[in-house]
Amino acid sequence: MIKKRDSKPIRISPPQTDEQIASEKSLKEWLATEETVSGFLFERYPEEGIDKPYHSVRNCTFRNQTFSDCQFRSMQLSDVRFVNCDLSNISLAESALHRTEFISCKLVGTNLSETTLNHVLFSDCNASYINLSMSKTNQVRFANSQLLNGSFNNCRLTSTAFESCELTESDFSHTSLRGIDLRTSRINGISLNINDLRGAIIGSLQAMDLLPLLGVIIKD
């Protein structure tokens, strides 16, 4: 049922960022007048209280920014980079992310449910309790990140990698892990169904953690 095989590397296209100018205004101020914000570097103003669905951000970098009490439902992000930002507990539900990077970001409790992610990188992030339920991922890499108690239920994972991640107590129920390589990540206590596990790539020690899912009782 569980086969160990070599997995193909996941190639992520980085954001294609053209020349960007330092913004003299906050993102909130731009979104008040523009449906699409493009070509800026944001690193001056904290962002709070934004509630702007159905807007777009393109070719932008956010550096050392804190987002609080923000709702970006159905946002379009394309060629965007977040570096050392705090996006905890904000909502990007039902959004579309394309060539987007989160580098050394805090994403605790961030809501990305029902979101489409294409060529997206999460690297060195604290994303405990992140919500990606009912999302679709393609060419997505989670690397060296905390995903403790994350919600990945009812997802469609295509060409998705978890590299050296903390997935303890995460929920993968009703999400097929076929072809997903979990060998370098911690998966103890994850929630899933037996059928979800078919075709997953795991290590021998990890198999011991998953035996309770089979109803097996281990005694010496």
What's the arrangement of secondary structure elements?
Elements: E1 21-22, H1 27-31, E2 36-38, E3 40-42, E4 47-48, E5 56-63, E6 67-68, E7 76-83, E8 96-103, E9 116-123, E10 136-143, E11 156-163, H2 194-197, H3 204-210
Characterize the structure shown.
This protein has 220 residues and is mainly β. It has a single domain (21-214), classed as E3 ubiquitin-protein ligase SopA (Pectate Lyase C-like, 3 Solenoid). Helices cover 7% and strands 27% of the residues. The protein is built from three helices and eleven strands; from the N terminus they run βαββββββββββαα. The chain has helices at residues 27-31, 194-197, 204-210; strands at 21-22, 36-38, 40-42, 47-48, 56-63, 67-68, 76-83, 96-103, 116-123, 136-143, 156-163. The longest helix is centred in the last third of the chain and has 7 residues, at 204-210. The radius of gyration is 18 Å and the shape is elongated. The two termini are 25 Å apart. Mean pLDDT is 92; it is low at 1-5.
